[in-house]
Fold this protein.
Amino acid sequence: QSALTQPRSVSGSPGQSVTISCTGTSSDVGGYNYVSWYQQHPGKAPKLMIYDVSKRPSGVPDRFSGSKSGNTASLTISGLQAEDEADYYCCSYAGSYILYVFGTGTKVTVL
Amino acid sequence: QVQLQESGPGLVKPSQTLSLTCTVSGGSISSGSYYWSWIRQPAGKGLEWIGRIYTSGSTNYNPSLKSRVTISVDTSKNQFSLKLSSVTAADTAVYYCARVPRRTYDSSGYYFDYWGQGTLVTVSS
């Protein structure tokens, strides 16, 4: 099972919107509505930002939103803020054999 | 609020067995509402799911590591543990423990809601 494909980096100015893509296959992203997204600051543990494609845990700003179309999921950060600069990883359920597959990770830079 | 904390040796020799423990506080590991998982991240690289365990002791492992991994649970200590045998330099990574909410309608879990801070394990002679 290969890792899900994410762009290496994306960037935007404060207040702008950025979108991170996460491309898999019909065996993972396309086959289930169980994509989650994690934010990771340097030297810190990942933090859950989105689950079940588009649901936000309590405490996560509504600037973060998720969606999915076919085999590609997306995370959009609207109104970009300096503290959003971090690495972001997607993760998809991939069935009862593999269970979980992570993305390659995307570095978000706030210009 | 639940907290997870990894512990164990930071240095392991090649061919030996890596052993880590995750201590859960602020909630019972026996509640039945969660799976408990291990995930690792080599320096500068992405995340890799290792495996998970339920309070009953039922386990699931990443097929790529299955032959070398054992995850166990000690409900009396509110801990779960990871053993990875025959380690090589490729197993050098930060190891995280994490919680997975279990859905009652299908008994599965689909995301990691709480994570430990991580512990670096280096494989070197």
About this structure: DSSP finds one helix and nine strands in chain A. Residues 46 and 54 of chain A are 18 Å apart (CA to CA). The beta strands of chain A are 9-12, 18-23, 35-40, 47-50, 64-69, 72-77, 86-93, 100-102, 106-110.
